[in-house]
Amino acid sequence: MEAGIFSSVNDAIYLVKKAHERYLMLSLEDRDEIVEAIREKLLPQIEILAMLSQEETGMGNISDKRRKLKAAIANTPGAEDLITEVKTGDRGMTLYELSSFGIICTIEPVGSPAASIVNHVIGMVAAGNAVVICPNPRAAKTSIYVTRIINQVIVETCGIDNLVVCVDESNIAKVQEIIHHPDVDLVVCNAEEDALNGSYGCLKKVIGEGEASSVAMVDETADVSKAAYDIVQSASFDNNLMHTSEKTVVAVKQIQHELEEEFRKNGVCILEREEEITRLERLILREDGLVRRKWMGQSADKILQAAQIPYEGKVKLIVVKTSQYHPFVNREVRAPLIALVGAESYEEGLEMMLAIEQNYKHTAAVHSTSIDRLNEVAKKLQTAVFVKNGPALAGIGMLRANEPFTMMVANVTGEGTVSSRHYTRRRKCMLTNGFSIR
């Protein structure tokens, strides 16, 4: 078996533990050097990684995966994210520092395997941890390829082998064996809901992202043209695979027609005929109302063709005009297909947002020039990501240059936008009697 890739869970964790013991002896400067080396090595690999991800999973599009990978490689926070707190007084000094959590098991998603692993590993290694990667079975080839590169870079930089490893195949039994292993300290689950639910029984700290129903509202005071552009850029990005991308838009009816016209200018196909919407439902949804996985991450053109719905030009996004009770509103489709719901007023729109978001506390966006309204929605929804007058994906650092980037919003376990500091233990160190110069 090649370095960093294992069939045996016990072999993998035994060697990871040995690697972590050596890694703990390195300085923060050493960690920075390793992280920078990983970034430098991966940047020329963006095209290959984007193609591998798209070809293996059959989801998303290569151009957006390139952008996502670039953000993950260049903008994932490193050790600079590890904030130190100091308190001094007459009786001494107290120091709070963020230290390595230990060995982390990270359960990876299928939609963005390369970008997710890069984002997680940079943050975890910067925080002083070792990593065991459980790839999604449908993205194993891509995951192993990324792990191999990262492992090689770490060996070349500091001489430590197997600090980041990957199991060669991932199934429920193997994942359960890893998360219950006594030497695994932390479980990070960015995969599907079933995998997250299966992680809670390990009696260890879990950082988890669950389902989302990301909703945006456009009120009558908004810059409608900008709102339409922002929503389309975010909701169509990588065929709407990201949980953070808008899934439903609530529009105050006073500006709804204008919003629809602006949508069309940005490559949107708007569906309002009942027979076409029914055809789309039968294609996308199973009889039990769940989404057919084969359509997740597929292009708008492909979906419209399969549903035999006529359209003109290149379509980036499908918008379905419907009520707030439609299955497309209450299910996370994760395809370039979102619902548009009309509201008589801002107040009714806010109530709709609360119902549509379903208390997942993941992501919401509002387009409005009223500061009072922006603040009211933020307080009432309590989402981990809240974007004012911008694309929802901006909340994780996407679609904006040089913003700190994350592939994970831990809405279930409460960390929110996850970065290096969340992969640490907060430790307290005291020096008594002195050390204050005030």
UniProtKB/TrEMBL annotation:
The lineage of its organism: Bacteria, Bacillati, Bacillota, Clostridia, Eubacteriales. The keyword Oxidoreductase applies. InterPro entries: Ald_DH/histidinol_DH (IPR016161), Ald_DH_C (IPR016163), Ald_DH_N (IPR016162), Aldehyde_DH_dom (IPR015590). Residues 8-263 form the Aldehyde dehydrogenase domain. This is Propionaldehyde dehydrogenase. Keywords: Oxidoreductase. GO terms for molecular function: oxidoreductase activity, acting on the aldehyde or oxo group of donors, NAD or NADP as acceptor.
